[in-house]
Amino acid sequence: MTGTGVVPRRSLASLAAARLEKTVSADAVRHNLAVLRAAAGGRRIMPVLKGDAYGLGAPALADLLVAAGVPALAVDTVAEGAVLREHGIGVPILVMDVDVADNAEDCARYRLMPAVAGPEQVGRHSAVARRRGEPVTAWLRTNVGFNRFGPREERDVDAVLDGLHRARAAVRVAGVFAHLSSSATDPGETAEQAEVFRARVGRARAVLGGHLTASLAATHGLLHPAALRGTDWVRPGLGLHGLLLPGSRDLPGWAGSGLGRLRPAVAVRARVLDLLTVTRAEGLGYDRSAAVAPGRRLATVAIGFSRGLTGPAPAFTGLLRGRSCPMVGRPGMDCAQFDVTAVPDARPGDWMTLLGPERTGDGAARGGGGPVRTAADVGAELGLTLYELLAALRMPVRLEGATPAAQGDDESAAPP
After folding, report:
1. Among 136, 141, 179, 137, which Cα is nearest to 160's?
2. Topology (CATH level 3) of domain 27-249
3. pTM (2 decimals)?
4. Is the peptide bond before 264 cis (omega within 30 degrees of 0)?
5. What region holds the Alanine racemase C-terminal domain (predicted)?
6. Per-residue pLDDT tens for 352-366?
């Protein structure tokens, strides 16, 4: 024997990340946060980290955002809020969806702020508060046309407000919020919904007190002065990652918003596992339904339908050594095949870029304005919205450059 060295054990996450990964640029997220703050015109920012921050790693992003001075965060479910609390996040956290009654006790235990949209929800959180002997802080979720939670008729809104007034010793309402249905596409409808929201906030303040804050705009709401008027908070999600729905650039508020300075923060890449030169006309994969001509060179790449690459998607492509390579046939569980005939120097172990700018072998982005797989293009190829795209590509996430000094500002001490 010439040596007794022991190979260090690698983490399970690193085993998966050696094949494929999502990266999120912390520098881009910080930049985007600054852009969103400027567009918000002095309103406080409550970043939305629902769905594990759209599949981008909510705990790590929460650390980054809290270090940058955000005063509160928002999630969809009690479970998502509990994950952040267990991770050590201490800022107020709004649970935007009306969660099930079974989770009300844990909502209070983790000091989360539940959304209430009806008398039954007021009752469940009031009962928890009385059992625990301490009040619950909640937000009123009102329905101005999104029509997912809460009443539309004014008499039913009054019933919710009456219930909150009677339960005010147990349920303390911090604010009122709503979702816009068409802020990326329809300024007229957005203005109408904003008018309904302002009226609801006025009625809530008349019943519950003038201390109530208000939040209507998310990222695309920043393009509508009507959605910002009279509000105190903005709840950006997609914008933190530099992404906007295509129609947003056609809205009247685009020119003065500054949102054109947002930077894409997310990239996805996967390894080439093997290469095959087709020598005769035949099919490939389980059903062999994809015909491949002789002489074509195929790369088997480490991403499949278990990671969100659904198919068939004949228009889907990846970048390899600066060339666009189309997917061939249907993806398998953990791999798919791409035609790399135009890349004669392709080798096993190469990284194929599926989203974002192509990188060199050492991981740096290629300079000179090289090819980029934009989120809009990838989403269109897969038939997914930008929201769906980020969450659908399920794979290890690496947050790059997340170790700067905290960038606090006057928001850091502001309670919701």
Report:
1. 141
2. TIM Barrel (3.20.20)
3. 0.90
4. no
5. 265-400
6. 999 999 976 555 555
